[in-house]
Amino acid sequence: MSLTVSRCYCDSQVKANSDIKANPLFENRNPRALERMGIARKVQGWKFQAPRKDFYHKLVYDKIKMTAYVVHSSGKIVIEASTKEPAVLKYLYKHNDVSASWNLGQLLARRMLESGITEVFYDAENKVTEYEAEGSKPSEKIEAFFSALKDNAIKLSEPEPVKFETVPGINYEGYTRLGERKRYQEDYQKL
Amino acid sequence: MATSLLKNTTLVLKRFNFCDQVLLLQNVRTAYTIRHRGLPPELAKSWKQIKQELSFCKEKEVLAVNIGFPLQDGTKMTRTEMRKRKQEKEEHSKRNEAELERKARLQELVVPISVAQAEGFQGVGQRRIHRLADHYGLFRDLFGEAYFYPSLDLRVGYVDGADPEFIQPVYHGNQLPPAETQSAPEVVYKGDADKFYTLCMVAPDSHLEQNNKEYLHWMVANIPGTSVSEGQVLCDYMPVFPVHGTGNHRYAFVLYQHDNVIDLSAEKRHQERPNLSERTFETLEFYRRHQDAITPVGLCFFQAEWDPSVRKTFHSVL
Q1: Distances (CA, A) of B260 to A5, A51, B152, B221, B292
Q2: Among candidates A78, A59, A34, A28, which has minimal Cα distance to B132?
Q3: What ranges does the record give for the region Disordered, renumbered to this chain (chain B) (predicted)?
Q4: Chain B contact probe: residue of A4, A27, A39, A91 with most B CBs at under 10 A
């Protein structure tokens, strides 16, 4: 196949497709690629602190301000939805009633689907606010919001982290070794 | 001070406060001494210099540049725009409150989301697209330090060959299977009829040899107004090929606006089977060459992961 590239700005060394050798250090620069696969690092080490920090994207729903947003662990707000937006408010009766809450859920879900972030972390265990405390009457607004998200196939848990094969040096899960003889054992770390 | 060594000086250890444990060499005859601490004024550093050295901030960060049109989010309005907004507010208050209240009470009130989003493009929508593009690292990988707020609502959709009714739209980051990206998509936007536009489809993650380059999948130049079919196709559409095992690759459509026709014949790629090394592209370099004429106005992107159609692409198309 003859190639005439006299006027092209591209690389002067043009080679046939079959001569291309893939880069052994191929890098996918997409910062969200590893998160989707469940391989990206999460913020670890804050196990006994609340609110939890081990997530990629977190869902936050503010019942009083009537905004819902998705935050990344770095602190950046990625997707935001509010019933106070003029384009949305003009179709609503009130910005903070139950139907507005449902519509807010629909709006946020639509934006999440458009942006490709459909699996987010929602901290259902560490509920700090009183209206979400155990034993209290379920709020219609909250139920409406989450039912809207569920209808749009938004998952409130992130992808399972990939567990890589570990080759432990010492078998910590076995029986206690305190009474063992001082002799080299097979499951010690191989040097 | 080392310079004050004299022949007849004696070492005098005086009782100073706890922190001060300096040995002073001084002439014993004088009772009142001038204490010199630290370096002489010619050599000593000023507080500003010390602060600079001690501060741990990096070198001055390069300020990001907005290469698109300025954001119009309603904070600065002309008189006509203010009048229009006042009218809208009056209409809003006159609307059928009773009907809305009834619907809200019975929870039948449904906001038409696609309409609302299209209406809210100026301001809220622009910021949303900018934020997402930033989050996906598109500005960093395509333009480096520059960014832009999309001033046009660029709508791109892949039409399924089998079922022409169904369109798979491209928003800002949604996942598409490569099987649906085999043919060139439909592009719609509300543009100026007097201006010209150039559309580029670019893949920043897919380059097989160099990590910092992109592949040019599609390029249509000098589109008069909004009729994309009348533009010059400089680069034939090439289907998407995210390599297996490398995760999600991003594919971005960037629309540039320019007042006059630009000679982009140097960007022309061959019409036959696409040659990948020829399709190597760098958006920043392209923009720099034509930055006086073009402004980026539209942005759309999707993600794609490997699926069996990619294998077919490798065997037959490339």
Answers
A1: 26, 55, 18, 11, 11
A2: A78
A3: 76-98
A4: A91
